Amino acid sequence: MVAGTAELLAECVALAEAHDVRRDKLLEVVGASAVASPLVKYKIGPLLADDYTSTFSSRLMRKDLDLALESAAAGGVPLPVTGVVQQLLQACISTGLGELDFMALLIRLQREAGQTSA
């Protein structure tokens, strides 16, 4: 659930910034909304500072999703969202972002969108 939330937060930031919404204002609103989980609140400071110092690396998050997908396959349970986020984390790793915090999902997305990123 952490990885999925991180990707959704990254998408929210990238979309807002594509429409010239300031990151600080966006995160203020998100942080006060119904989606303001402890994870979202924890990541606001680093996102405001463009700080991707690892608290849990993209590589380790991908490993955890690999384990979840293996367990799901063994139990015959499809996890489509988990599979997509696992692929996005693999894209982070493949482009040199593997040792950064898992919020490097935002850097990957900004690069794909042609936005300036860390």
Task: Provide structural commentary.
The protein has one domain (2-113): N-(1-d-carboxylethyl)-l-norvaline Dehydrogenase, domain 2. It contains six helices and no strands. The protein has helices at residues 2-18, 23-31, 38-48, 58-75, 80-94, 105-113. α4 runs antiparallel to α5 (80-94). The mean pLDDT is 97.
Number of helices: 6
Task: Classify the helix fraction into a percent range.
Answer: 55-70%
The fold-level CATH name is: N-(1-d-carboxylethyl)-l-norvaline Dehydrogenase, domain 2
Order of helices and strands: HHHHHH
Per-chain topology:
Elements: H1 2-18, H2 23-31, H3 38-48, H4 58-75, H5 80-94, H6 105-113
Helix pairs in contact: 1-6, 2-3, 4-5
Features:
single chain; 118 residues; mainly alpha
Q: Can you summarize this structure?
A:
By secondary structure, this protein is mostly helical. It has helices spanning 2-18, 23-31, 38-48, 58-75, 80-94, 105-113.
